[in-house]
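Continuing the series of single-chain predictions for the mutant panel. This is the parent chain; the variants come on the following pages.
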Amino acid sequence: MIAAAAEIFELNLPVLPIVAQLRQAGYPMGILSNTCETHWEYCRRHYRIVSEGFGVYALSYKLGAVKPDAAIFHAAAELAGCRPEEIFFVDDIAGHVAGARAVGFDAVQFTTAEGLASDLRQRGIRFNY
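Parent structure:
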């Protein structure tokens, strides 16, 4: 039953080298997700990058708020130990990006790995991609 509810996920393979290089370079990274416990546990168990590639997990089912509500972004910043303006946030949903920007995050909408790499380079981050 859990698999039937959660096998809707797949890795965005072109993004993996970006995540790996940022992690190796020592950039602090986190996941901010509108998710339920079933989906989170499935992804954590099936995708090693989820459980090992990030240091902060701001999960809607634990925080009691969902994107694009300001409360979840503030809670994520607090979990990360950062001010909102110190956070670079990426999401594929424009409304979530707008919500993040409204609280002070530097936020961009994800379209492609190449676009994300360009966004990171514009912010002075250098890596092989």
